[in-house]
Amino acid sequence: MRTLCASTLIGEFFVIGFAGLVAMKDDSLSMGTVWTVCGILMALSVLLCGMITRPGGTALGWALQVALVLSGFVVPVMFFLGAVFAGLWWASVHFGRKIDEAKARWAAQTP
User: Fold this and answer.
1) Contact 89, 33 (CB under 8 A)
2) Cα–Cα distances in angstroms (integers) from residue 89 to residues 31, 58, 68, in the given order
3) How far apart are CA 88 and CA 103, in angstroms?
């Protein structure tokens, strides 16, 4: 699960950065505000790569997905990209757990 989820989170890191560049074009937002919010979300996405298997890691990942979708109110294309990454996040968690279970069964059968 860790590999699939970390891949999704690193992709989100770049998408958040690019969304910050787009948000800078909005005259109603200050550059400091845009990069503070984007910086926190980017740092969270990287930190979650190491925390994903710990308690609460998946829940924090879902919170990041919600934040990405809600960022569509500032950068409208993020409604779409946030939904795409939420789907990728679901797939990473769902299929990652299945892979982990299969690995555990295989390890138990191997002498």
Assistant:
1) no
2) 29, 9, 12
3) 21
What is the maximum alpha-carbon separation in the chain? 64
| Six token digits for residue 99 | 């892979």
Contact (Cβ atoms closer than 8 angstroms) between residue 48 and residue 57: yes
What pLDDT does residue 11 have? 96
pTM of the prediction?
A: 0.88
Which residue type, as a one-letter code, is found at position 18? Answer: F
E strand or H helix at 100: helix 77-109
Mean pLDDT by 10 residues, the chain (111 residues): 92 96 92 95 95 92 95 95 96 93 90 71
